[in-house]
Write a structure and sequence with these properties.
Radius of gyration: 17 Å
Strand content: under 5%
Distance between the termini: 29 Å
Structural class: mainly alpha
Number of helices: 9
Number of strands: 0
Helix content: over 70%
Shape: globular
Order of helices and strands: HHHHHHHHH
Length: about 240
């Protein structure tokens, strides 16, 4: 029971931290718009570095140890995110006021999935949870900024955009974690391996196909260094743990 409680504390701590960082991103874009817009690409690149490294070094190998079919689950996770994003883009039109709402709905679903990832990864191990969680928490700053901006672009007032952005992109993460945790906490063996494989696919998509391309769209002088810093941090934590 003690171990279960400790796992929940980790999950809750990271999920609530994600909401806090998301809120800080929203406050920054409201009060310090120029700095927030300049900095968001660095946050995304750093987070992408961690989120590319963690599935490849830890999550997928751990999942494969539990079940041979973890690789198939990773493919399903990747394709799930790919087609989800394709569906969102299909019904998103920047020329219409509905753009902000539609894009925000997609971000809300993505944030809810982030919460699920916390529950699954910490169930596997604290190391995997901390690495995946760190990358997810860091990218919440940029996600808060982006959610606010798409709502503003959709014609929502500044005050409402700030409130809605936090509800959509901030609170959905702890909600996802708390809703799923009671079910995930009882999963072991091959079933946990399949869930970890799915999570690995999701993280690889989010980092390589979402964060990095979007960050490179706002190319900054040191964005590559920020990405490598994220990779380096993940490597350092893993090698320190294995030493």
């Amino acid at each position: 029971m003690s171990g279960l409680s400790n796992t929940f504390v980790w999950v809750a701590g990271f999920a609530l931290s994600a909401a806090l960082v998301n809120g800080l991103g929203i406050l920054a874009i409201i009060r310090y718009r120029e700095w927030a817009e300049k900095s968001k690409s660095y946050f995304m690149c750093f987070a992408a570095g961690i989120l590319v490294s963690t599935p490849l070094m830890l999550i997928l190998p751990t999942a494969i140890q539990k079940t041979f079919y973890a690789g198939f689950a990773a493919l399903v996770g990747f394709l799930f995110m790919f087609f989800s994003n394709q569906l969102i883009k299909r019904y998103t039109n920047k020329k219409e006021a509905a753009f902000g709402i539609t894009a925000a709905e997609g971000i809300g679903i993505h944030s809810f999935v982030d919460g699920i990832i916390y529950a699954v990864t910490f169930q596997a191990s604290v190391l995997i949870g901390v690495l995946a969680g760190t990358g997810l928490v860091v990218h919440e700053f940029a996600e808060g900024v982006i959610t606010f901006l798409v709502l503003m672009e959709g014609g929502t007032s500044e005050k409402k955009s700030g409130v809605y952005a936090f509800l959509i992109a901030g609170l959905t993460t702890p909600i996802g974690a708390f809703v799923v945790y009671p079910f995930v906490s009882h999963i072991k063996g091959s079933a946990l391996g399949l869930m970890l494989g799915f999570v690995a696919g999701v993280l690889l998509y989010v980092s390589a196909s979402h964060l990095l391309p979007e960050a490179r769209g706002y190319e900054k002088k040191h964005s590559t260094l920020a990405f490598l810093a994220g990779v380096g941090l993940a490597l350092l934590i893993v090698l320190t743990k294995l030493a």
